[in-house]
Amino acid sequence: MLRVCPKCGIPKPVDDYYANVKKCKVCCITATRAYYKNNMAACRKAGKARYQRNKEKQKKAALDRYYLLKAIDPLLILGQTSEQQSRRRRLRQVVDARREAQKRNAPLNDFTAAQWLEVQEAQEHRCYYCGKRSKGHLTQDHLTPLSQGGSHTLHNVIACCRSCNSRKGTHPPLIPVQPLLLTISKSRMPECGP
Ligand SMILES: [Zn+2]
Ligand SMILES: [Zn+2]
Question: Under DSSP, is residue 141 helix (H, G, I), strand (E, B) or coil?
Fold first, then answer.
């Protein structure tokens, strides 16, 4: 399915568009860069102001993340090997998702790093919606969105690729069941915890 970009007039696949934006990604990026170049002073000033506004919030977020990670694995905080770094990156995704669910008052918020790994393995590291394999780059998606009162818990989380996640509005779940629940037995379910 190709869509014609109103700016450059080139027909492009849907993946080349951001959700709810008419222009294609290339045109969006070109426009943003041009705007920045022409308004550099104003952009820098706005950026600095934004930084000052968000400084405290970001400091707190970094600290929250630090303590959550430390609780999971105290040695991981200091580890500098590439394996430790990639593990930290993976855990950050899990920790950030929890913080997001907390902000949105999810009724249940107990999805663990171990469960996230199992979900991806159960889906063979493929996107739940389009089936594309994308090991290490899948994103978490909620069958019942957090905005509709969904929980951040095993039975409501599936793995999907970035592009399917960003245009999920047009992608209702094919089967409203979290596939992992069908493939692993209760006894193998990881304990709840951070
Ligand atoms: Zn375009
Ligand atoms: Zn996908």
Answer: strand
